[in-house]
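Here is the promised in-class demo. Please do not try to memorize the tokens; focus on the logic of going from shape to residues.
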């Protein structure tokens, strides 16, 4: 089982979700305007979260008459709408979570969404893989260990960005620009825009947290 979440970011950056519409292994959740966007695509979300301040009155009425239930929250709260949805998704213990509509638009929202990726790792709550995806990027977080990474032809550029003050012992094998047991600090651009040499490579490190970004031009 996978959980796919559509947030309220610009739809022009969202991949074609109709490719997944008939997949019975997917549970859909919408966040705020993302709920309305899913309905417009002909996808009825299983869960709906938000204060719904980004939909019009008539759009909200449509949601309320179409959906079986909605989790409506006040605008003034301690968690963002997406954070509420993500906490629910983690509690379902899925095989993975993919988040769309979380990039572009407001920079503060995007940066907050990136931090959401680190929250469960910092708290050591879950090992469920969580991805933020748009048309040009796949973004996820990794903690210390050794990880395989497979080629995605349309996302050939791979960057490793420190999310902690230092990432220690990073080793890259099977990459155009390999590394062996290097330490990189926050702000370093050493691991930006690398590429795999074949269908699979590995990266490993012993301390810190890394943001992995897979991109195309």
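The designed amino acids, position by position:
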């Amino acid at each position: 089982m996978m959980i796919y979440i559509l947030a309220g970011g610009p739809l022009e950056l969202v991949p074609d979700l109709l490719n997944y519409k008939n997949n019975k292994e997917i549970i859909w959740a919408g966040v705020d305007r993302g709920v309305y966007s899913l309905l417009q695509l002909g996808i009825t979300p299983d869960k709906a979260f938000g204060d719904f301040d980004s939909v019009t009155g008539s759009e909200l009425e449509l949601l309320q008459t179409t959906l079986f239930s909605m989790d409506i929250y006040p605008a003034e709260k301690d968690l963002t709408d997406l954070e509420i949805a993500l906490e629910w998704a983690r509690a379902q213990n899925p095989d993975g979570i993919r988040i769309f509509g979380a990039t572009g638009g407001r920079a503060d929202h995007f940066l907050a969404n990136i931090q959401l990726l680190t929250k469960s790792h910092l708290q050591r709550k879950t090992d469920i893989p969580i991805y933020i995806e748009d048309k040009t990027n796949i973004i996820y977080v990794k903690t210390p260990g050794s990880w395989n990474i497979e080629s995605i032809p349309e996302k050939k550029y791979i960057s490793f960005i420190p999310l902690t003050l230092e990432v220690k012992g990073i080793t890259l094998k099977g990459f155009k620009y390999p590394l062996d047991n290097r330490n990189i600090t926050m702000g370093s651009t050493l691991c930006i825009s690398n590429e795999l040499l074949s269908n699979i490579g590995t990266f490993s490190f012993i301390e810190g947290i890394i943001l992995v970004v897979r991109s195309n031009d």
